[in-house]
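Q&A log
Question type: sequence-to-structure
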Amino acid sequence: MKARVTITLEPAIVLQAKAVAEARHTNLSSLIEGLLEQTVRRAVPGQTKFSKTWAGKFTVRNDKDELLEAMKARHGLSAK
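Response status: OK
Response body:
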C-alpha cells in the first residue's frame, strides 16, 4: 500500500512539473515517485557504479596496435 505524503512546492514548479508529467503520459505523483526512487537508488551505500568497479582493471598490452593509434589520433589523445 502506498503512503500519502504532503509536500510544499513553489506554484511555478508545480505547473512546470504537471506539464512534464502530462508530456510523459503520467501524473504528478508518479513523476515525483520516479525521481525520488532514482535519487534513493543512487544514494544507497554499498552500491558502486560500474565505472568505479572496473576503473584501472584493464590495460593495453600492445602500444603499437594500429587501431589503438588511429583511435588516439582521431580523438586527439597523445600516445603514451
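Response note: The chain has a mean pLDDT of 83.
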